[in-house]
Amino acid sequence: MSYNFKSIRPVMPAKDMINVILSKTQRKTPTVVHPGYDISRIRGFYMRKVKFTQETIHEKIDAILQDFPKLDDIHPFYADLINVLYDKDHYKLALGHVHACRNVIDNIAKDYCRLLKYGDSLYRCKMLKRAALGRMCTTLKKLTSSLNYLDEVRKHLSRMPAINPFERTLLVTGFPNVGKSSFVNNITNANLDVQPYPFTTQNLYVGHSDYNFVRWQVIDTPGVLDHSLSERNPIEMQAITALAHLKACIMFFLDISETCSYSIDQQIALFKDLKPLFKNKPLLLVMTKIDIKKFEQLDPIDQQKLQDVIQSENVFYSQLSNKSGEGIALVKEKACNLLNEWRQNLKPEQLTGGNPNLLREESILQGVYIAQPKRVNQNRMPVIPQVVGKLNRPTLKDVQEQNGGAGVFSFPLQEHFLLDNPDWKYDAVPEIMDGKNIGDFVDADILQRLEELEKEEEMMDQAEVEDPDEDAREDMLLSTRDQVNKKREMIKEEHHMKMKQQVKLHRPNLEDAKEDFAKKGIDTTFLEQRAQKFAAKKIVQKQKRQQQSSDDSDDNDMDIEGNERNQRKGRDALSRSRSRLREISRSRSRGNKKVLTAQEQAMERMSKKIQRRRRNEAKAGDGDTKIDCKMPKHLFTGKSGIGKQSRR
Amino acid sequence: MPQHDYIELHQKRFGKRLDTEERARKKAARQPHELAEKAQNLKGLKAKMFNKERFKEKALMKKQMLAHEEKDIEVNVEDVKDGAVPTYLLDREQQQQSKVLTNMLKQKRQEKAGKWDVPIAKVKQMSEGEMFQVIESGKRKQKSWKRRINKVCFVPETFTRKPPKFERYIRPTGLRFKKANVTHPELKTTFSLPLLGVKKNPQSALYTTLGVITKGTVLEVNVSELGLVTQTGKVIWSKYAQVTNNPELDGCINATLLV
Predict the structure, then answer these.
(1) Are the beta carbons of B9 and B15 closer than 8 angstroms?
(2) Chain B residues bordering chain A (beta-carbon distance below 8 Å)
(3) Which residues in chain B come in under a pLDDT of 50?
(4) Residue pair A67/A48 in contact by the 8 Å Cβ criterion
(5) Closest in A124, A161, A206 to B248, CB measured
(6) Contacts with A205 from chain B: Cβ below 8 Å
(7) Rounded to two decimals, what is the model's pTM?
(8) CB B174 within 8 A of CB B156
(9) Which CATH number among 2.40.10.310, 3.40.50.1820, 3.40.50.12780, 3.20.20.80 corresponds to the domain B129-257?
C-alpha cells in the first residue's frame, strides 16, 4: 500500500471559509422576497438559506475529514512518523475539533429551521436566518487555530517522499556525517544535499535504484546520536521510526577514518544501542571512507573491537568509499542479496501487508521461471530452394550494371508493350504533327462509326423513293387552311355589323317628323309654327344673356367670360349647402366677386367661424341634431380599451 | 522526485532569479495602486466585504498612531499645595470635588433603590395579535377560542397537556426553551444555565402564568453550577435574571443576572 498524501486538498483559513460560504449562499439561493408573499413561501425562502449554508459547511468540513489520514488506518510507520513530526495528540484534537464543529453547525441549522416554522412575519424569519448564519459563522471562526494547524500539516505531508513500506528497501543509518547521503546519491539519482557538517539531512529521503530487474527503494535517514530514546530530538526520531517499522535491509554506516568527529568506540556503542531495532532484519555493517584509512591500516585495537562486534553479533560487513567509488557496487549487491534471501523465507502476506496487488506481484516475482525453447541443432543455416540456384539469365539489375549503371541506363518499357504486330514495338510515334496534338485525334473505333452513319443515310434515301403522292396531300392541306381563314373573316364581319346596328340612336328632328306625319296623312303646318316659336324664344334668351354679361363687365372691369361663368357655377353649387345673409344674396345672384369692405370681411369671417363646427360635424344646419350611429362598430369592437393609440 | 524543502535546496544550489529583489520591490510598490483600484471599482457584495476589511485596517492604524502620539505627550502632575492655589486652578479643584459629590450621590441613590431595579425597566407593549395566533376549530372551523402562542415559552418538565377539547392555549414544542445564556454583570462572563421558571412577564400576568418569554421578562435560573454562596455559607440554587433580547427573533435567550 502506498500513500498519496499529495492529494489532500488545501485547508482554507476560517475567515476565508466564512467568506466563501456566505457568498456562495448569496449566489446559489434566491434573493428576492416580499412581505406580501404567502407566509409559507417566506418561511421556505429563509429555511432554504439556512439549510444551504449548513450543507455547504458540512461538505467543506467533510472534505477535510476525509482527506486527512486517520492514524489508526495507515501503516504504523506513517502513524509514528506523523506522531513524531506533528504530535499525534495535537493532530487528533484538531481533527476532532473540526468534526465536533460540524455537528454543532448541523444542530444549529436544525434548531433554527424548527424556529423558522413558527415565523409569523418576514421580519421575524429574516432575523432568525440572520441569527442562524451568524452562529454558524461564529462556530467556524472558533476553528481558526485548528484549520491553520491542519493546513501546515498538509503542506508538510504533501512534501513527504512516497515511501512504500512494502517495497524492497535499503535503509541507511549511522552517526551524522558518516557518508549516508553520499552513498544514496551514488546508487540512486535522488540528488540529495551533501555537506561536510553533521545534520545536513534533517528528514527521510528516498531514492530508487535498480538491481536484478526490480526496483529498490533506498531510504536516507538523518544521523542518529548515541543517547537514550527520551533525549532524542524529532529529527533523530524519524530515523528511529523508519528503523523500527520498515522491513528493510539495514545498512549501518561506520566511519572508520573517524573524520566524522565520532570515534569508532562511540559508533560501536551506538550500534549496540540500536541493536534491538535491527532484530529479525538483514543487517550489513558498512565501513566507510576507506580512501582515507583502510581497515587494514587501522589501529589493531580498533580492528580487534570491530572484529569482535562482527563475530559476536554475527553481522555481514563490507567496505566502501564514496569519494573513490570503491566498493559501492559491491555493498549494494551484498545488501540486496541479503534482503532477497531474507524475503525468500517470508510469506508473501507478511511482506505485502495483505495488499492484493502487491501480493500478486510478490508471488509472481518469487515464483518466476523463464522457459527457454530446446534447440535441436545449434547452427541453423538459411534454406534456399534449388530452383533459385538454377537461374542463368541475367537480372535487370545486371543489365543495368552492364549498360553504365543507375542514372545512365534507362529502363526498356517498350519490351512489355502488347501490340497486334510485335514489329511495331520499337516504332517512333510522334506526339505532334502539323502543329496538332495527335492524341486529340485518336479514336479507336472511328471506322465503325463511319460505317453506321453511311448505313443510316442509305436507308433514308430508300424511304424517299418509296412515297410518290406527297404533293397531292400538301395541296389538300393548304386549301383547307384557306377555307378556315375565310370563314373566320366572315364571322368577324358579321359580328361587327351587328354591333353597329345596336349602337345607333334614333333622334327625331323636324324633317323626319314632317315626313313621318305626311306618311300618316296629318297636316304638318302646326309643327312648323311650333318650331318657329321655340326658335324665337331661344334667340331672346340668348340676347338677354349677352346683355347681362356686358352689364357685369361694366361694373367690375372684368371681361373674361369663361372665368365669370365658372365663378357663378361655383356659387350656385355652394348655395345649396349654405344659407347666406340677405345683403350678400343680391351680389351673389349677379355672380360677381365684389370688393368687400372691412366690415363685410369681418362679418364673413365671423359667419364662417360660426359654421365651422357644424361643417366639421357634417350637419345640415343648426337644427340638425341627428346622430347617425351611436356606437360605430369599428370603434367599439376588439379587445383594446378606451385606447391610448390614435388608430384602431 | 522533489522531497521536503526542495525549493530551498534549489535556491541554495542555484540561487534566486537575478531580479527577485526588484520584482519584490515593484510588487510592494504596486500594492497601494491595486488597492485603490479595487476600492474604486468593486461592486456589490465584494465591495462591501472589501470596504469592511479596509475600514478595520484603517481604524487599527489610527488607533496605533494615536497610541504613539500619546506616548510623546508629557504629563506634568503637580501636587497642589494647601493655600497656594493660583486663581485659575480654583475652578478645577471645585470641579473635582463636585465630581466626587455626584459619584457619592449616585452611590446613595443606588443603595436606596429597590431590589427590583432591573436593567431593562421599560418594554414595548405587545398586542394580543402579535402574541397569539387564533386557531379555528369545530367541524366547519367556525369556532375561534383556541390560541397558539407565537413567542418563546418556558414549559416545566412536569407539565401535562390538557385534552385538546379543553386546551385554550397551545405552546408549540418548537418554541419551548430550556436554557438561557445568562451573563453575570460583574464577572462579565456568560453561562448557559437551565431555566427554572418565569417569574414575571411585564406584558401581563397571563403571560407570566403561561411562561411566555419576551424581552424584559424576569426568569428564574439554576445557578448551582456557578457555585455562588450566601453569606451564611449556603450554596445559592437559583437566581433571577432578566431577558435582554427578543428570543423569538434571535432563537436564543440572553439574560443578565440580577445580583
Answers:
(1) no
(2) 1-6, 9, 12-13, 45, 49, 133, 150, 172, 174-175, 246, 248-252
(3) none
(4) no
(5) A124
(6) 3-4
(7) 0.62
(8) no
(9) 2.40.10.310
